[in-house]
Write a structure and sequence with these properties.
The protein has helices spanning about 15-25, 45-50, 55-60, 65, 130-150, 155-160, 170-185, 215-230, 275-285, 325-345, 380-390, 395-410, 420-430; strands at about 5-10, 30-35, 75, 80-85, 90-95, 95-100, 105-110, 110-115, 165, 200-205, 230-235, 240-245, 245-250, 255-260, 265, 270-275, 295, 300, 305-310, 315, 360-365, 365-370, 375, 440-445, 445-450. With about 475 residues, the chain is of the alpha/beta class.
């Protein structure tokens, strides 16, 4: 009788899921990787897709292609809806085809989504920066703003169209604000006749008292000064209280309220753990932190369930930030624990995170880096950022094409990914409107939306915001 191999199920194809699978390449196990998308997304560069520097294919290679030489992995496309951790069953589906997969060890790496702090209706007008769908929609909104401003005769409306608001002054918000400003001041400078793109307002809003809080006051102040020198308006100690089709409202530190009329808004503030974390917490008795992430044991498992690991952005672990290194290192630790179980060797014990630093770009040739006591700014930091991001992009082809795209962009100030469609602009809202016509459910990006039997009314683009 042949011996059944240890079955490992991995949920998610981000850094946590992918590096878990890779770390078990030479282990005598059968791996099933279930993910809601067909690609592995390099999320740190998503903002460059949104601003036309890179294509989505350059930062999101197919997971199946990355793991094609690893014979002990099967990749499945599906949305995991439930996990029975007592009976060791993962319940998932693709459209209306429901499946169940048994496991001996489970690694949950479903990550986190955008948090609107209880105001989920803001997402209609201010997309986050978590998925390819988000980036393509934002790209459409940003470029369409300039296109519509070109033929708009009303001065106030033209100012609104050429005002961009980024909410959240963390790395994503800083990078997004810098790129929009660079796009307006350099890339589009000579492309229009009726408008001057360099007059576009880019406003960065955050409730904190400094830019890039995790980087410390010194680097935060340097970053703010650099952003302002580019023309970005930095508004700190200001909390966004409302977002609608025509602008945002915010409350300042002195208690006054202010409204900014704007067309394109980007939400880069806060994260919320995937809803699968709630399911795991209810079954295991684990607690969730304020962001909905699972508070795990010292070895990254659930209390009472040593065969279930929660890693990456879905886990809550002391002093581990929600960055790629946290997901990679926790994935490798979970894989090492499973390997020790299969091979009968001593387990690695408690998880210890090694902080390899943080970095963020501001504009071309300018970035900030914080690694322990080392603090870098300007060109040297930008070069370090460039090297490390190329190093962690999955796939040789993606590294080459990304390097070529960067070289062309840096030398010419041009951006090759400027194609946008009306479908990108209104597609998400159109899908939401299919709700009354449902008979089943579909998977779209990182969300579940309704499918349809009958055609609903079209969602028009009227030169303003898409309407739901």
């Amino acid at each position: 009788m042949s011996r059944r191999r240890h079955r490992v199920v991995i949920i998610g194809s981000g850094f946590g899921g992918l590096f878990s699978a890779k770390a078990l390449k030479r282990t005598d196990v059968d791996i099933t990787l279930i993910a809601r998308t067909t690609h592995h997304l390099f999320q740190p560069l998503l903002y460059q897709v949104a601003t036309g520097v890179l294509s989505e294919g350059e930062i999101a290679p197919a997971t199946r292609e990355i793991l094609r030489r690893q014979r002990n992995v099967q990749v499945l496309l599906g949305l995991v809806e439930d996990v029975d951790i007592v009976n060791k069953v993962v319940k998932w589906r693709f459209h209306d085809e429901y499946q169940e997969t048994l496991y001996d060890s489970l690694i949950v790496a479903t990550g986190a989504g955008q948090s609107y702090f209880g105001k989920d209706e803001f997402a209609t007008f201010a997309p986050g920066m978590k998925t390819i769908d988000d980036a393509l929609e934002l790209r459409a909104r940003i470029f369409k703003a300039f296109e519509v401003a070109e033929f708009t005769s009303d001065a106030a409306e033209r100012r609104r169209l050429m005002t961009f608001v980024v909410v959240g002054a963390g790395p994503t918000g800083v990078e997004m604000a810098g790129q929009i400003r660079e796009l307006a001041a350099s890339t589009l400078k000579r492309d229009f006749r009726a408008i001057d793109p360099s007059e576009a307002r880019v406003i960065l809003v955050d409730g904190a008292d400094q830019v890039l809080p995790p980087f410390g006051p010194e680097l935060g102040a340097w970053t703010q000064e650099k952003l302002e020198s580019l023309g970005v308006e930095v508004r700190l100690n200001s909390i966004v209280t409302d977002v609608d089709a025509r602008g945002i409202e915010m409350r300042n530190a002195d208690g006054t309220t202010e409204r900014i009329e704007c067309f394109a808004k980007v939400w880069a503030a806060g994260v919320q753990g995937d809803e699968l974390g709630q399911t795991l917490a209810e079954q295991s008795g684990a607690e969730l932190d304020r962001a909905g992430r699972v508070i795990v044991q010292s070895d990254l498992t659930l209390p009472g369930f040593p065969d279930v690991f929660v890693i990456g952005d879905l886990m809550s672990f002391p002093d581990v930030p929600g960055v790629a290194q946290g997901a990679i290192q926790s994935a490798q630790h979970a894989a090492a624990t499973i390997r020790s179980k299969v091979e009968g060797t001593p387990p690695p014990g408690d998880f210890h995170y090694v902080d390899k630093g943080s970095m963020a770009t501001i504009s071309k040739y300018s970035a900030v880096v914080k690694a322990g006591r080392i603090k870098l700014t300007g060109f040297i930091a930008w070069a370090a950022w460039l090297f490390l991001h190329l190093l962690y992009i999955a796939g040789f082809k993606q590294r080459v094409t990304t390097l070529v795209s960067w070289a062309l962009s840096f030398m010419t100030n041009g951006r090759s990914q400027r194609v946008v469609t009306n479908q990108q602009l209104v597609g998400r809202l159109a899908m939401q409107r299919l709700g009354p016509y449902t008979s089943g459910r579909l998977i779209r990006g990182d969300e579940t939306v309704a499918s349809h039997d009958d055609e609903p009314d079209a969602v028009p683009y009227d030169g303003e915001e898409p309407r739901s």
